[in-house]
Design goal:
Layout lengths: L6 H17 L6 E4 L1 H10 L5 E4 L5 H10 L6 E4 L5 H10 L3 E4 L8 H6 L22 H6 L7 E5 L13 H14 L4 E4 L3 H7 L7 E3 L6 H9 L3 E5 L2 H8 L4 E5 L4 H4 L6 E5 L31 H7 L1
Helix pairs in contact: 1-10, 7-12
Length: 309
């Protein structure tokens, strides 16, 4: 099974993994993915037997390592729309049966990936809880956090996803209002290096800024012990969904029907009059401003989010 790319893309394939594990409990399920996501799967996804860190420059060496541990792969799932892994399988792995993913924007990504195996699979047959919690008491103690007494906030203002982002000052105002109404709660900010640059001065009473501080495995641990997660359409939103956490998602140019939280406990706020979703496409720029920065997300207010909080 092969899927590179972002956190959310990989997590959307995991219900298929769990579905196959139930159907074939004795089979070895092995997964080729990006090095950055591999550690998360190794530490939190028990349905995969082996994780392979894929390097495009060393395809042959990787294939030799895979084949050295088994005689022959029975199935190979190419979970990309492109044919790059078609040729990887054809030239190196040569599985007995090959499955090719075809993108279908009319269904949720989770269902779309699962139907790579069986076109008749429905949402009712897929389990959204695909990552498990781990004991992380030392990690919580390090940041003076108490289980279920803090919320995770994911600004998601990275440069590659600016069209999905909510203004940084809105996130800070939201955190302060939540803390004002609940004097026993803590707000934890999560994200990568881009978020760290914007949020580096955020802190103070009951605000813990962990942007740029954690690897994916520790991020999952922090999310797993939180009371809820508030996020734009980011990989960490989908990570929270896979842990079955309560999720509040802020959406504008992307479609919740396609990439919304695939869990039973969520709320979605959709920006009003967004003009970027025509043709069911996830655009990289705002149609109104013609710039990467989003415009429609500004129609969501802090009070809108607080109503769902």
């Amino acid at each position: 099974m092969a899927r590179l790319g972002g956190i959310g893309d990989v997590i959307h394939t995991l219900p298929l993994v769990k579905y196959l594990r139930k159907k074939c409990p004795e089979s070895s399920i092995e997964y080729l993915t990006s090095p950055g996501v591999a550690e998360l799967l190794e530490s939190h996804c028990p349905y995969i037997n082996k994780i392979w860190r894929f390097d495009k420059k060393n395809k042959r060496q990787i294939s030799l390592k895979i084949l050295s541990e088994q005689n022959k792969a029975d199935y190979f799932f190419n979970l990309h729309s492109s044919l790059s892994f078609y040729f990887f399988n054809l030239l190196f792995i040569r599985a007995k049966k090959y499955f090719q993913y075809k993108k279908d924007n009319s269904v949720h990504a989770v269902i779309n990936f699962a139907r790579t195996y069986d076109q008749s699979v429905s949402a009712f047959e897929l389990d959204s809880k695909t990552l498990i919690e781990r004991d992380c008491g030392d990690l919580l103690n390090k940041y003076n956090l108490r289980e279920n007494r803090y919320i995770c906030i994911v600004p998601g203002v990275g440069k590659s996803r600016m069209h999905r982002a909510w203004a940084p000052e809105n996130w800070l105002r939201l955190a302060k209002k939540i803390l004002f109404t609940d004097n026993s709660c803590t707000a934890v900010f999560l994200g990568g290096d881009d978020e760290e640059k914007i949020c580096e001065r955020w802190g103070g009473d009951r605000i813990v800024n962990l942007t740029g501080e954690l690897n994916l495995s520790d991020t999952a641990n922090i999310i797993s012990k939180s009371s809820r997660v508030i996020s734009c359409d980011t990989g960490l939103l989908h990570l929270a969904s896979a842990l079955s956490k309560k999720v509040i998602g802020l959406y504008g140019p992307t479609l919740p029907e396609r990439t919304g939280p695939f869990t039973s406990d969520y709320q979605v706020l959709i920006a009003k009059d967004c003009k970027c979703t025509g043709g069911l496409r996830d655009l990289k720029k705002c149609k109104v401003t013609k710039l990467p920065k989003g415009f429609c997300m500004d129609s969501l207010t802090v009070d809108n989010v607080l109503c769902y909080h």
